[in-house]
Amino acid sequence: MKRSTMVLSAALGLGLAASLTAVPASAATQAPAGTSSARTVSSYVGSAAEEANNKAFFDAVMKSVKAKQAAAPGAQVVTVVYDASQAPSFQTEIANSARIWNSSVRNVQLRAGSNADFRYYEGNDSRGSYASTDGHGRGYVFLDYQQNEQYDSTRVTAHETGHVLGLPDHYSGPCSELMSGGGPGPSCTNAYPNTTERSRINQLWANGLKAFDKDAFTKAR
């Protein structure tokens, strides 16, 4: 399924969500009510609300995983299951993102399947792509068409998936840092986490669900 060509304009960061919202009802069909096909100029500075939203998303996914892990206590490698059926235009990018993360870290792995811990959606949203929760203990990643036209789509997807695994945004970082998102600009196409980010994920997920430590969601440096 080919994505429609959108107007290229300055986008919000790769992961903007000002508040917790329900999954856009119009995802994969049309723009949600109140959004525009053009975007406003914004710097990549992030916000306290955005950081809180990313943490809420992470917590929702972890709760889902923890419930399933109870059936396999002591597992050294945690499997996080995703559903990409509601983002048909991004099947390749989502699969590539999962491969990137699975080859980069050892204590947690991403798998497509049913009974998912989080889902991907697609559509138009003035906030760009972001990770959020549905308010009912489940998480989702929303992939915005326009932003994925302007920025490297695999980087966008891998960045948002980084929130699933516990990494916050760090827009001031260099292109080599995946969670710097859109900070380095559209010319940045790196879709791989750097050594610090990989180490942080392995630390969070060491010995199963260690991610519930109170300091799990901290900025990667």
TrEMBL record:
GO terms for cellular component: extracellular region. Zn(2+) binds at residues 159, 163, 169. Binds 1 Ca(2+) ion per subunit. Binds 1 zinc ion per subunit. Its main location: secreted. Its EC number is 3.4.24.77. Disulfide bonds join 175-188. It is found in: Secreted. Keywords: Calcium, Disulfide bond, Hydrolase, Metal-binding, Metalloprotease, Protease, Secreted, Signal, Zinc. GO terms for molecular function: metalloendopeptidase activity; zinc ion binding. The active site is at residue 160. It catalyses: Hydrolyzes proteins with a preference for Tyr or Phe in the P1' position. Has no action on amino-acid p-nitroanilides. Pfam families: Peptidase_M7. Residues 1-27 form the signal peptide. Ca(2+) binds at residues 152, 154. GO terms for biological process: proteolysis. Its cofactor is Ca(2+); Zn(2+). InterPro entries: MetalloPept_cat_dom_sf (IPR024079), Peptidase_M7 (IPR000013). NCBIfam families: snapalysin. Belongs to the peptidase M7 family. This is Extracellular small neutral protease. It comes from Streptomyces cinnamoneus (Streptoverticillium cinnamoneum).
